Amino acid sequence: MSHELRGSSAVVGVGLAGCGEAHGRMPLDILAEATHNALDDAGLKLSDVDGIFTGSSYHFMPALSTAEYLGIKPRFSDSSMVGGSSFVAHTLNAAMAIKTGQCDVALICYGSNQRTAGGKLATMSEQQIYEAPYKPRYPISSYALAAARHMHQYGTTREQMADVAVAARQWAQLNPAAFARDDLTRQDVLNSRMISDPLSLMDCCLVTDGGGAVIMVSSERAKDFPNKPVYVLGTGTAHWHRQITQMPDLTTTAAVDAGKRAFAMAGLTKDDVDVVELYDAFTINTILFLEDLGFCAKGEGGAFVENGNIAPGGSLPVNTNGGGLSCVHPGMYGIFILIEAIQQLRGGCGARQVDNPEVALVNGNGGVLSSQVTTILGTEAVL
Known about the structure:
Acetyl-CoA acetyltransferase; two-stranded antiparallel ribbon; Thiolase; single chain; transferase; alpha/beta; Thiolase_C_2; Thiolase-like; 2 domains; Peroxisomal Thiolase, Chain A, domain 1
C-alpha cells in the first residue's frame, strides 16, 4: 500500500533570481524576485500564497521577515533550519501542510547576496568548543577530514575527486546561467591552491549571490496550471551529528537513512532514477552521497565518478546545472538542486537536458555533512 503523502502534492512553479552577482540587492530583494518569477511561472499571484517555507543565514526569524517583505499573511509558516538542506526538507513539510489543509499554495524560497556582501555568511552561530583549539577552517576542514579518511580507508584519490569538479564544470558549460564556465581539467584541480589538505581551491564550491523559489499545491489542483506538474513522490530526513568530531563514521553520512526513507515512500529504487542532483559543497560530497544513496557500494564512489561517468554523456547524469562547484552557491544551495531537478523533469533545460527523465533524486546537505534530506520527484508517468 502506497504512502499517503506519495504524489499528494506537486510543484507547479519555479523561479531563480540574482544568480552570480546581484549588485545592490539585499537577500530579501533577491528572494522576492525569485518568488515573483515562480508565481509568474505558475500563473499565480502573491495573494494566492498562504504557506511560507524558508530559511536564512541573515534573518533570525526568516518566515516573519519574508512574509512581511512580501506583504502576505500566511496561514502556515515553517522556517526550520537544518542548514543548506532545509529547502529540500521543506518539500516534506509543505506536502504535509497541504495534505492536512493547513495551506493551499506553499512557497519555498531563499535569497542571499553572499558574494557581493563580501563573501562571508554568519553560518557558525554556535562555536564548536571541542574543535576550536585546533583552529579548523570552517567548514572546509570538516569536509577535508572526511575526504582524508575516505582516501585512507578506501584508496580514493585526489584525481578522482578532481573528476567530480571536472564533470560539474562540463555540465555548467551547457548551462548559460552557470557562473563558472571556463574549461577545467583534472590537472587544473590538482594544481589549484591547497585550502585544507586534501581539498584544493577547485574542490570547493563557488561563492555567489542567488535566490530560488518553488510553488507547491495539491496534486488534485496541479493539472490546472500552465506547466507540467512535478510530483513529490518521497522524502526522507536524517541527521546524526552537528559538529564533525561527533560524526559516527567520517565515511558514511545520514543520507543512508534519508535515502532509504525517501525510496520507501516513493516505492522506487535507485534503478528508477534518471537524474541525480546532489549538494556538492565540496568534491568529496558527491562521492559520499552516491555511495550512501546506493548508486555504488561504499568505498567505490571514487571509481564511480572517474573518467566522465557522471559528466554529460556518462552513465548517470549528476548535478546537471553545474552544481555548487560551477553553477551557483550562495551560502545555502538546497533550493537550487530542487529547482534543477524540477526543470529537468519538465524538459526545459536546453543543451543540458537529460533524455526524457521521469524520476529525479535530490539530496540536500546541511552543516558539516550533518543534515541529509533526500527528495524523489517524478512526472505523471510514475504516479
